[in-house]
Queue: 4 jobs
Job 1
Amino acid sequence: MDRQRQSESRRNLSEVNVVVVADSTASNGRLLHLHALSTDSSSLPNANEQMSRWSTLVLAYKTLGVVFGGLVTSPLYVYPSMPLKSPTKEDYLGIYSIMFWTLTLIGVVKYASIAIKADDHGEGGTFALYSLLCRHVNIGILSSKRVSSNSSLSHSVHEGTGKISRLGIFFESSIVARRVLLFVAILGTCMLIGDGILTPAISVLSAMDGLRAQFHSVSKSLVEALSAVVLVVLFLLQKFGTSKVSFLFSPIMAAWTLSTPLVGIYSIIHHYPSIFKAISPHYIFHFFWRNGKEGWLLLGGTVLCITGSEAMFADLGHFNQRSIQIAFLFTIYPSLVLTYAGQTAYLIKNPNDHDDGFYKFIPTAVYWPIFIIATSAAVVASQSLISATFSVIKQSVVLDYFPRVKVVHTSNSKEGEVYSPEVNYILMILCVAVILIFGDGKDIGNAFGVVVSLVMLITTILLTLVMIIIWKTPPVLVALYFSMFFVMEGVYVSAVCTKIYEGGWIPFAISFILAVIMFGWFYGRQRKLEYTLTHKITLERLIGLLSYPGVQRVPGLCLFYTNIQDGFSPILGHYIKTMKSLHKVTIFTTLRYLLVSKVAPHERIIIKKLGLKGVYGCVIQYGYADSLNLEGDDFVSQVTNSLHMHLQGCLDGLTYDPVEIQEEISDLEQAKQAGVVHVIGKTRFHVGKSCRWFDRIMLAFYEVMHNNCRSALPALGVPLQQRIEVGMLYEA
């Protein structure tokens, strides 16, 4: 097994608190380590190493059908998206030089060599970078004092980093800097989701437009309708999972990746054999010298040559680093260089054909085979950003920055391979709406350029912080990286922002709506967390509550679900004051989601005594392939059996009084026979007249989302007659 696979195995054994576990963990994106296993590759048989290499090559083949669809099909719409006016040979040579160096620097250097290594437990994307920073530096919005009150967060904040950098200290001490960083991460996430809407629209529409080139009677409306039908079918296939979809689509992308460069080579030989002289950067300087502002505006079209490159990073959870690097460097990159060279060579001889710069450079003899492959490849191109969108939404839900939606793991071996039905159908509706409302490919191209350039720029900023704070990269290298890519992508952003009124407003509208949803959810969760940690019940307070007149310990076994482990939820105090009782055996239960496929049986349930007779803490750990749909009685039996074993272990030790432990074992058996009840808290905000108008709006919006999203508690098969929901109002 190669080192890459080992490192991924180690990462995948780390824990993340998702949906159910303490909100404090989720809100700050801090991930805790459960344990780590390492395997010496030298001890593994050669057969396993060969199998690992073969598996990596198979994964690399599958990436063609998922990761690189958007990138490798960009020749369909790059030249048609450029507002060229009477272009000359020198103009085309300059444009090709810009595209070549954009693909080389951003594609090869930035994404395939640097960004892909900045994964967070195997996940990629802008939010994964933010999560990675949160794990190593205390840059959550809550103060570190409050967050550290949860014992599950007592793990070192500066995880594995040693001495914290000055920049890290600055972010920890400045709430404004932390809020700006959060805003940047949310904006990047929203833009990537917008990319998942625009990529299918522009790819399929550009491919289907080939019908109009051969059949002039085919109307634009018919092309738009056919494109919408193709997209609906694609989205309906998503439920089968990335592996099955990529296995189906990879042959199509392999055909596209091989056929277009062959056509490109033919075009180079036939039209302009010396095209590769444009690799020299001086053609770029001459291009801007001659064209000035017009050349700068053309960057809004040339940036589309790198569209889809962010999927290399965002789709990391679906594959692995090595497979993505192999596929890009040995197939995708050479294919794009040759295809764009062939297109440019054709346009040098036919300078006015740029509005249909792809299909017109296809020789007549192979037009229809290429059209079929192009249309199929455009569908595949849509898949890359759809998969990336699923990954980003899942990361956002995991870190509690997005309302809980259903996330289905479609693979038992790959944690990052996910599918969300709600997100899938919303994407489908929005993609079809973009095509039917904004059918003009240039308008969608302008919108696309805004998304692509902003996502790249945000990735550069976050990656620079990772290099400084976590990797401790030498300052000279950091300065070289930041100055090169920030300037390049900043120029691209400045060019595409001039297209705001020509379709560029579409991604901003989408991103604004998504950002409001994410910030509203985040703000509500933070306020709820603040209240929970401020008003939590300590053990001393619990003893005091139980000593009140009229409060009794009633027979029975109670599983009280909570999301904090250091102390008790305020709901417990509300429950005791209202019910005037607490069961003789009460187990405070927390569900914890781990980034492994299945949790070993002996690690699934962790029990501890909480210092009060009949009161215990229980953590139930489960992986993404574990089923929690247990029958209620079986679930209770597993917990009580683990508690019995824990008490038996205490009895065998010297720390506890044997008589007391024996009484607790006897009480446990009697409580189970008396009856079992599951207590689940339901909290809402009470927004009083003294609240600020901002709180009134945001918390009301949060409550609407909270009432309509999925429950934080996975289905445990708890019988309805055993389930009690305790409501409590949190004062805003």
Job 2
Amino acid sequence: MLKKLTRRVKTLITKPFKKPKKPPKPPTPAALPPPSPSPSPSPTMSPPPPQLPTKIHPFLFPNVQSTVLPDPSRFFSPNLLSSPLPTNSFFQNFTLKNGDQPEYIHPYLIKSADSSLSISYPSQFLNPSFIYQIFVPDLTVSAADKTGSAHVISSYSDLSVTLDFPSSNLRFFLVRGSPFLTCSVMGNTPISISTVHAILSFSSNSSLTKHTVRLNNGQTWLIYTSSSVSLNHDLSSIGSDGFSGIIRIAVLPGSDPMYESVLDQFSSCYPTSGEAVLTKPFCLEYKWEKKGWGDLLMLAHPLHLDILASDGCDVKVLEDFKYTSVDGELVGVVGDSWVLKPHQVSVTWHSIKGVNEESNAEIVTALAKDVEALDPSAITTTSSYFYGKLIARAARLALIAEEVGYVDVIPAIRKFLKDTIEPWLDGTFNGNGFLYESNWGGIVTRQGSADSGADFGFGVYNDHHYHIGYFLYGIAVLAKIDPAWGRRYKPQAYSLVADFMNLGRRSNSNYPRLRCFDLYKLHSWAGGLTEFADGRNQESTSEAVNAYYSAALVGLAYGDTHLVATGSTLTALEIQAAQTWWHVKEGDTIYGDEFTRENRVVGVLWANKRDSGLWFAPPDWRECRLGIQLLPILPISEVLFSDTEFTRELVNWTLPALERDGVGEGWKGFVYALESIYDKQSALEKIRNLQGHDDGNSLTNLLWWVHSRGDEHEIEHGGGGKYCWFSHYCH
């Protein structure tokens, strides 16, 4: 039986060692003595020493020394080790094990190994089940006749990472979206550029600053140097005498002479790093640091192009300059600052369109039963993921009760939420709990600190936004219905938010910047500190949306407009990324025809791969593939699945799978929920006949969802979607 645990807070009152005497009562005016020429202050009237303001330190969960995390000092420069470090980044493979698995840094796959760096312009392999890019070391750059230790990460930012090879005098500026690989060579070092292909021809311009290499795989590569250098070659390698300066390498993505002309034009300006700044709500600005001269050429993926602002930034889109990518065509953009404006979304506690009042009675009947069944002592799991889902499920009941006006059940829900949340925040939960580890900088669980497989890898920073997002939903709702409780646990709530949503870059922060969210791809990654040949991955976009949505609700509960704005903006970006890369519409062109014909949703999306299977289910379990992109069902789910025609395609694609033996009732519920968007009555009958529900869902929640599907046609307008009505009046 879980007992309600009340945290006792002792207040420490500091007092002087001796209590000063009270000053004498002032005499009446008639008895005042004549003023003394040099009055002496009474010792009892000495002013107390000034009190210095107390510095408030952010709350941290108890410290733990993890036994399962890798040592970050092998690849990060010593000056970076005192700061929290990224755990789900686009370059994470460069920090794990031998650091020699490739990473996809658009448009190239990059691999560091044996004191060298290899670049691949990958071809794609695709079939109905998956798509992946094939790494082949098209060119490998190293210092001639030198061997040394592994690379060192000397700096990193939102859009870049810098790899140093100290013993080889080489520094690589790996900036995402650059059509050039840029290398700085120091110390008059001889350079070697080798290939696994055969060199068919090699030529240099008259100034010896541009060199053209044709390979027998059909590729042509251009090598630009900041000063004249004479290169020699044989069948598979190119070499130089001593050189100091900048080398830039780019593949010609097509045979049209335009490609070479564009690369020539922009070869002299190179980026060294790039930052992404959330300047205001629903606005993200890219700013690149650059050197050289001329304008900066970068590449934009399809979502960039969809939300690239035409106002507020001086950029030029080169629509015909394109590279291929597993993420769709990458298009040239000229300019060192971009402004991106996703569609606006409204973060709300309750349904967007409201519940049909005639349906309240049915919802209330289910609500009373679901609340009556709430019992903390019946919870058997100690998993941070499944426990968080149960908390969020109960919190949904409270908000539905508010919406349908059945507030009598709220005290019982409040008690359940207190009894289940407080032990995790107080550190008194039996069997697990949140702790803080300082090597990488973040929250881990007690189980995860000793077992890398526990809590789905939470202890190695996998799925943090999923697990914490569920807890934050419950905390936000409890803080809303019990503000006193919210004030008491506000430090813990913000510590949980900061674990995956810290925006700061300060070295004294406790958490890295945006642990899971990728500010170039504009969605989150899971995976944590596990090496994968295809980079980071993410399965459930809806649970990622829930994380940022729940953080925004925490902001609403505490009146924190900055947190509301940040959470809402990341929610909007995550939704549009899901609709771009996970939702596969009929006739889409991002993925090949074979994959698009067979799939309506991606199972697991990797940096370098698209997989139709799930971590827990094969591709033909389509109900799971749909459900994992919808759960948990929330008001924001309406925005995620705002494309009614695609939703119909997805449900029709999924329904035949429900005829398979052994399909779980919980997964059926998610299919019917989406069906209700376009066929409410049919879905409602199916939901009423369900014999069970997902552990994070309930009959109450499904009925609320169906009965809040509006029948009216919403007004569409550019930029804001159909969920921010005031933007109708802002244009």
Job 3
Amino acid sequence: SCFLDIWDVDVLKRPQDINKQAHHTHLYSSDFLIVRRAQEFQIKITFDRPYKPAEDKFAVEFVIGPSPQYSKGTYIPVFPTEERQSVWRGRIVETSDNVITMGITTSPECIVGKYMIYVSVVTPYGIRRTRREPKSDIYILFNPWSPADPVFLDDEEEREECIMNELGIIYHGTYDDVSERAWNYGQFEFGVLDACLFIMDKADMPLSNRGDVIKVTRVASAMLNSRDDDGVLVGNWSGDYTYGVPPTSWTGSVEILLDYAGSRGTPVCYAQCWVYAAVFNTFLRCLGIPGRVVTNFFSAHDNDGNLKMDIILDENGKLDRNRTKDSIWNYHCWNECFMARSDLPPGFGGWQVVDATPQETSDGMFRCGPASVAAVKHGQICYPFDAPFVFAEVNSDVIFYRRQKDGTLEAVKVNQTHVGRMVLTKAVLHDGRRDITDHYKFPEGSPEERRVLEKAEEFGCQREKASVPQSDVEVEIPNLDVRVGDNFDVTLQFKNNSDQRRSADVYITGTVVYYTGVPSAEVLFKTPKKVLVRVEDYMHKLVEQANIHFIATGKIKETGQIITAMKVITMHNPKLIVKVTGSPRVSEEMYVSVEFTNPFKFSLENVDLRMEGPGIMPFKRKHIIAPGTSITWIETFSPRRAGSTKLIASLDCAALRQVYGETELTIQQ
């Protein structure tokens, strides 16, 4: 025939083919071609005869969504000749007999999602187009390797960690006694990419906004919580998880995302802050946006949008629980994602805070960010989005007020260093931690820090202005290493900086708290220098994170000054022992055992065990109604791919939460 006929279109989509290798998408467990924008990929087209550039006219057409339009960026034709080009570039890389290899470069701001591909040829009788072939659909993602893409991150090791690493460590506990939990982000597992795109569908996000990383991350921060939009996760801080999975039980994001997408958008129960942050991190890395989970220790959750966390004492210096409304979370996890901010002045690109935990509404919805970390550090909190809220989380002052007999409040002590004490994220490419507090603030007490706080006040953040006399007596509660089930002593250390004798009435309250600082039960209340805390005082009251928050407050008799000390004691749980046997090779059968011995006097019931490992074992769970004193659970698995990875396990029941174990292993090809 005189006009070209198309015999075959090959999108070169196997993991070992040039496209997935060059685009760093070879780890996705997917039968489709996945490429990154602003970087060339190749397809091979077989015609019924050799292609003649001078007379044959053809185009490769990309279509996304139900009603494709060129003006909306949802219909894009790509042409092979230099004279005729569209927003995506095309070129012929090589010709061999009837087969041509075509290179296609998408634009750096193109829509991220799943496209259909057609080849069309101009004939004397009109345009002939290939039939729809679902197997050659193409996913196009953000590209942190391309300088043209707003998510470009110019550091190969950072990219390796914040895009390619499926395993993470999330920090919790307290700043001077940090605990770690391993997490399987699983961004390359089967079905996860579709689930992440489904989240944007569920939000009714216009396709034309899905190439804009600022809009994508802002929509996701609203969609990962179920408040006001039937998003992915239902928050629950009550301690009662009868109708879902306790937040402490999850070991990874995959099960959550697949459940949500598989039910076409039924929110998954339950989450607390690290679960929101971990699943958000999977979403970011999966779509190609550099992401990491960060933990802020002593995070202010302010109820009235100022820089003051108010703790109310009665006239004797004793804590007034009913009137103390603001809460300081022992820690709070959020996400940072990396992007240029063309909507802000220069210098505010780079890492941005996004937070999906529903705390406050922003523009009428529960969402937060993206807020520039550099803007937070410099007090430039007028820039979108939600920078004042993040600024308060790391910079609030803790103010102790004494309530006088007539009901007025007098500021008696200001602690400017307690909140935002430390911000941590996982180190690059190894399991250590990285302290990034200095990304968020200047050193405490430095002139820069003072200028930043003044700048924030100009933008409307109120601070406590009262000057409070420095007390000449200091008190502190030293750190303790306590295992759940131990008796322990809490000691008060006093330091008298005056040259006179000082005596004090001191109250110490120990409160079992949720990590959000919300009290659950009081443990003790006396005024000695040393308090014995017995197991029977706290064991039946402990909530899942096993924190006891001690506040010592008192009044110096001679001067009337108020002294205060705060300490969170995190109890350490027993660990699971995870062991692997068998030959560590791809597709070989291996065994894993999870063992636990109950060290307590009471028996456990309705125990849930979970385990998973990226690339080697999909998540599994086991329910044991009445285990004896020891539990052994054995499963088989066959690794899907080579490389070093981890198996992560958790044990959870109403009487004992947050019991974890893990083991590292390297799989040979």
Job 4
Amino acid sequence: MHHSPCGDTLAGSAKMSEMSSVESSQEHLSDPSPSPNSSSSFELIDMDVSSLYEPVSSHWFYCKVIDSKEIWIPFNSDDSQQLEEAHGSGKDCNERVVPTDGGRYDVHLGERMRYAVYWDEPPSEVRRCTWFYKGDKDNKYVPYSESFSQVLEETYMLAVTLDEWKKKLESPNREIIVLHNPKLMVHYQPVAGSDEWGSTSTEQGRPRSVKRGVENIPVDIHCVNDFRSVSLNLLQTHFKKAQENQQIGRVEFLPVNWHSPLHSTGVDVDLQRITLPSINRLRHFTNDTILDVFFYNSPTYCQTIVDTVASEMNRIYTLFLQRNPEFKGGVSIAGHSLGSLILFDILTNQKDSFGDIDSEKGSLRTVEDQGDVPTLEEDLKKLQLSEFFTVFEKEKVDKEALALCTEKDLQEMGIPLGPRKKILNHFRTRKNSMGVNRPDTSASEVNSSKENGDYLDVGIGQVSVKYPRLNYKPEIFFAFGSPIGMFLTVRGLRRIDPNYKFPTCKGFFNIYHPFDPVAYRIEPMVAPEVEFEPMLIPHHKGRKRMHLELREGFTRMSMDLKNNLLGSLRMAWKSFTRAPYPALQASETTEETEAEPESGSEKSSEVNTEETPVEVKEELPINVGMLNGGQRIDYVLQEKPIESFNEYLFALQSHLCYWESEDTVLLVLKEIYQTQGIFLDQPLQ
């Protein structure tokens, strides 16, 4: 790796005398009686003022290796300026460490290397760039090494100063660079088999453009469509007022890596050995997803997973506070696919107060402990069976124990048949209306799922593991493409109590793409008796996507046509037929009255009375419980026009779409900033 010493100019000290001579001749121009030599210099400079040399402006880049190909990516302007200031700060600059990318990466200036702060990632080379050439395939500018850029700059300076062009240089890789004039500089790749004694043979092939400086090279917006860069762009477009008023800072996104350590066990290699070669992409997706599910359902691996996730979340949070001691914002968490289920299980096992975590408080099965819960004595009084309280007290049977009792147990305690039936019915109903409903289980099955040593059973069918505690209380939990609903159902849960909420997290959003094969809804588990659609996530540019509006328009039009046609046919049929009996006529009249509103044209008053309840029905508040503080939980993205042509074709792709989706990012930003009282510049329709 080659780079110039800190603080040196690219021109280099050897050529500074050339520059000073030009400057002295300029100063000499102020003499009212210039010498012939100086006047000739004056004439030369006056003829072409643009030939005056100005040092090149630099910009800092880092190198990413993607698919075995090096791609040079510019630092943003602020980071580049910080690196440049550190570079020119003096002799100790090589020991400087400069935080970049919002503090997510540190650049070690002397090494010219960029290191990830919060996660493991191969370090990347950093370069102070001044000269570039266009690549052979992607047409992007590639920076020369710092040492060769210095040679190019010195040659350019001489050419400008002396007005001597057509300079030819050979790079360390035997590439030929020709400086024809300030606006025409080209680069030739070495040609195999060329004559190494002559230069003409190496100037073959299509010349590539050579560029000095970063002017007209986009250095602030580059093609990295990740969650963080999308959010930074949306801040500029949707929260501009709040930014200008300095009401908000940016939202930082830090990844939690639990997947890689889990898959370093060698199981992946064994699985690949038995995987069929056909439909490779689908099988890879299946292996990757299903293997994690099997891992998570194994007690051994499940404990490893929850420990890894929680410890990483705590480590990253602690490290972030160390590096940002002034931070006073909130923390939200997001999980994708199985990751969302892991977070859900961890959150259901948190404790509201930072005390002993080996407590079952806050789990879904103990939701009945929240609020004013009647005692056993009060329950029996309500059933008018108070006289049996002493029996239960004598046998040390509390409400939980009573919920586990069979009819035979009550009979052995001397409870008569009538009261037995009442008690069993009452407490069976109560058990089914706790945090979740589960299928009926025998006493032995329930007993076997009680606490086992230090491990907890949270009552929702999770593997019995010890769930770690997070060092903070998340504001909001976002689930992307989440199978939480499916897992809860398979675990035996039929209903989530509307009063249940996470012990330490106030908000919960279940966000999914309509074609995502891994995603399931949550709200129907809270309100199973009501059918309603999920919330449609607005397009980040406002309104619905055009094809969805067209589809709805065509649907409405076809329904209107259908209803009008049916109404016309009915009128025609009525004009040709008469009911022979009053009973039939009455029945027909009733049928017409019920069906006529569908026609939409015969009796406007009847249509309006029929339509009004429909609108009211849509506006009625839906009780979706307290998981999201009483607000809606399920949010569905709008599919793109091309995706709507073939749902199956885009199914796998839709499961991975969330990290690049502007609509998803905007919803996340909107909800996070709302916790601080900050709203969008303009509400989306």
